[in-house]
Design goal:
- This protein has 65 residues and is an all-alpha fold.
- Helices cover 83% and strands 0% of the residues.
- It is built from 2 helices and no strands.
- The chain is elongated, with a radius of gyration of 25 Å.
Length: 65
């Protein structure tokens, strides 16, 4: 039985296995937690900025009428 070694998926899997073999999972978990917290803080500032911007635009419209 001959195995096809020209398969792109097998090359991708091999490369991924080599790259992730020596991965520091504790450092990766800490980074993921920090990234999630940072993303939540950024999203809250973004939503607050959009809210206050919309509120100021509506207030400006009411004064113009």
């Amino acid at each position: 039985m001959k195995v096809n070694t020209n398969d792109t998926a097998s090359h991708t899997f091999l490369t991924g296995a080599i790259l992730f073999a020596n991965l520091d999972y504790s450092g990766l978990a800490a980074y993921a937690i920090k990234a999630a917290i940072g993303g939540a803080i950024w999203m809250s500032f973004k939503l607050a900025g959009d809210y206050f911007s919309r509120r100021a635009a509506n207030k400006h419209k009411r004064k113009a009428e």
